[in-house]
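User: My collaborator sent over this chain with a note saying "see what the structure looks like." That's all I know about it. Can you take a look?
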Amino acid sequence: MMLVGDVGATKTLLEVGVLRDGRWRPAFGRRYAAAGHPDFDSVLRTFFQEWAAQRRAPVKIARACFGVAGPVFDNRAQMTNLAWVVDGSAVSAGFGIPHVRVVNDFAAAASGIEMVQNADCVALQPGEPIPAAPRVVIGAGTGLGVAYLIRAGGGYHVIAGEAGHAGFAPSTAEQLELWRDLYSRHGRVAVERVVSGPGLVRIHEFIERCEGRQATPASELRVSLTPAAITHAALQSGDPLCARALDMFISCYGAVAGDHALAVMARGGVYVAGGIAPKILPRLLAGGFLAAFNARGLHSDAVRKIPVSIVTNEKLGLPGAALIAARAA
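Assistant: Without extra context I'll predict from the sequence alone. Here is the result:
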């Protein structure tokens, strides 16, 4: 039996199960809000207590793998957007699990692409895929994650890093004004300051300022100004300002994805994962994402041959973590 986890700044997903016949088969799983726990050990303790209450007999966990939103060194991650440390050696000693791996969350997500089902993907651009060509997995949520898959030794090798903290490069005049606005307030503008849930809120606020609006912090709008509220107002209520913010966000998202696709000429496919994409799928299908993705100047025709898919399964990192744990054996 294996334990796998996707540990993000907003939520943690945990499952126990087995990897059989090329499929991850969970026996028990839970989702926890990060806000309810002071550290990762607290989440694990809660999970094991709830699992013990469900099962009839003790079960030994032989291996664990956690995909964590932050850089990983020596099997240990200091999370970027949450004051948690996930230490594989400490988890092994504290919870009696012989083998524990800690990897970047998008290393796990990229590994999960091997087991993704057709039903879990929606094609944005069919492209002209080339077998064994590089792939890109990118996803916005609380932050922005990116990983590359490069064919080597008969399989794909995953390269994950902190590309969400690379510099944001505006690709339109409006995005340039956004960059200037954010730079004046925060200094260096990282990509995930724009392409993330909090980034969507910043874009909304930027558009408000451009229109000369001065909403007071105590106003009802300001209290409810969250990524989910903006998305709902844009997609369900037709709020023009929220729709404009969401469209600008999508354009920035598509441009960043296109940059990474071009960096490795990802004819194996670009997979847009993360928590936001499935929630804004109708707007992604409207064309703004692909227009920005394919706007590559001299290489636009080449980039149009890159397949682009939206991954709608938010648990992509869990089978990926299971695969990493199994291969480590």
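A starting point for your reply to your collaborator: The chain is about 40% helix and 25% strand.
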